[in-house]
Amino acid sequence: MPAPRSPRLMIAACVVSAMSGLASLPAQAADYAGTWAADLTQCKAGQDSPDAPLIITAKGYDQHEAHCTFDGLKSSGAGEWSGKASCSIEGDKQSISVGLTVSGDTLTLTEDGAARDLLRCP
Question: Would you say residue 83 lies in a domain?
């Protein structure tokens, strides 16, 4: 019969196991992933509304009738990412240049050179 493990070793093993699961997520996703809006009242709007908030994941983003998948998004510095996205905007397929800059609870999303600032939804 194996010797019983100490509670400290069991807790440490659980922490290591949980952290290894996080390692499978792209590191940058923790910073920019979430729900963002130009105005915090938009945070409660559903995706069927033209005033819907922007929802970003590690794989891409969605807002109302725009759905984009990141193609090679790379970190370009602390709080900054850039790359391409394949998008379907109202059914029209497009490839766009994307930039994400996070500073506190503000995200600047740049799409093909046009920037907009968004606030993190609570």
Answer: yes
| Beta carbons within 10 angstroms of residue 82's beta carbon | 16
* Residues paired with residue 62 on neighbouring β-strands, in sequence order: 55, 67
pLDDT at 110 over 50: yes
69 beta partners: 60, 86
The CB density around residue 56, as the number of other CB atoms within 10 Å, is: 22
| Strand 54-56, strand 34-37: pairing | antiparallel
**For residues 97 and 111, is the Cβ–Cβ distance under 8 A?**
yes
For residues 121 and 43, is the Cβ–Cβ distance under 8 A? Answer: yes
Query: Based on the structure, what is the number of domains in the chain?
Result: 1
Report how far residue 122's alpha carbon sits from residue 109's, in angstroms, rounded to the nearest whole number.
18
Q: What pLDDT does 35 receive? A: 97
**How are the residues of the chain apportioned to helix, strand and coil, as percentages rounded to the nearest 5?**
20, 50, 30
